[in-house]
Every structure is written in C-alpha cells, then in structure tokens.
Design goal:
alpha/beta; 7 strands; 9 helices; Rossmann fold; 7-stranded mixed β-sheet
C-alpha cells in the first residue's frame, strides 16, 4: 500500500475504534493503526505466509476466505471495516459489501480502476492491462470482477450505500487534479468511505 492511501485510510479511522481488515495481508496497516490510533484491530486473511507475518506483529488474525467468512463477524459491532484492494477478487462483491455494512458502521473500500486510461489503451491494443494497481498478467491474477470508478459508484447507488468520502489516486499513488476531476479516466485507484442510509 502506498503512503497516500495509508494516510487517507488512517484519517478516516477514529481513535480507539474497533476495526476489522478483510484481506489484511501482513498486518502492517492494522499494526500502524494500533500503534498510532490505539484501535482494537482484527484481521482476516487467507494466505498462510501473510498470517504468520501478522502473528509476528502481534495482530489478531483469522484464516478465512472473505467470500465465505464475512457473516461470521456480524454480531461483533465494528466501527469500521476495511477492504483494501480485495473487492475485485471476490465472487460476489455486492453481497460482501452488504454483509460488511451489517457488521460495521462504515466501510473503507479501495479498488483498481479498469477505466484508467492506460488500461483502456492496453485493451484497445488487444491486451489485458498490467498496471501498478493491476500488477498480474491475466493468467496469474486473482481478480474476478474488475470495475471502473463509475461502475463502483453505480453499484453503491443501486445498493443504497452512501458514499461519505472518496479520493482518487493516479498511477504514481498520488492525488492529482486530473484524477480528482476525471476519475473514471485518470484515476488508477479509488478509495471510498461508505455507509448504509
């Protein structure tokens, strides 16, 4: 995760809140939040090696497939759920978002934008895109449901989710006027803070 993305996520998470990170990776984000914002953090991860790294950092982590495991946490009443760069890997992203907003007041979602101009150029040349936010070749990727910024915002509207805040980053992982003004074309990544109505 780049520093701009981490900064935005940290800004949105209140001090001493209860946070669950779906697809927490090696637990670095949760570790930073625990140290800096005194949160109670919990991770969900499927990769055994990353789980071991979480444990070494002292992160409470559960080995679960996100597609099948979100509902297991519905009675936990989290303040914030985080799903950074994982939503496009899920079988049913819309159902995952519904479930996440049953177990938390707000949800932070980050996603690579398939509408980014470099992706469009690759597709126009007959190739699947490879970018910093979509780094794997088509035959190696875990992505199942890639979308554009516009697609994601349409999904939020159709599902009745409120977008409280959003930021867009360019392919260098930084905010830019072009990415903010024309995100569907010039943002490589979108970051959303969503809630139920």
């Amino acid at each position: 995760m780049n520093t701009s993305l981490i900064h935005i996520i940290k800004k949105w998470i209140p001090e001493k809140s209860k946070v669950i990170d779906f697809g927490c990776g090696d637990g670095s984000l949760l570790k930073d939040l625990i140290d800096e914002k005194k949160i109670r953090g919990y991770g969900v991860e499927i990769d055994h090696n990353k789980i071991q790294e979480c444990i070494l950092k002292g992160i409470s982590v559960i080995e679960k497939d996100i597609d099948e495991g979100i509902q297991d946490f519905e009675s936990c009443n989290f303040d914030v759920a985080v799903m950074a760069s994982s939503i496009q890997c899920l079988k049913e992203p819309h159902l995952a978002l519904r479930k996440m907003l049953k177990l938390s007041k707000q949800c932070i979602v980050t996603l690579p934008n398939l509408g980014f101009w470099k992706c469009r150029l690759d597709l126009a040349q007959g190739r699947m895109p490879v970018t910093p936010n979509l780094p794997s070749s088509w035959y190696e990727t875990k992505n199942l449901h890639l979308c554009t910024i516009k697609d994601f915002e349409t999904l939020c509207f159709e599902e009745g989710f409120v977008i409280n805040e959003k930021f867009f980053l360019n392919d260098k992982g930084a905010k830019s006027a072009m990415a903010s003004t024309f995100p569907n074309t010039f943002a490589s990544e979108g970051i959303y803070l969503i809630a139920k109505k």
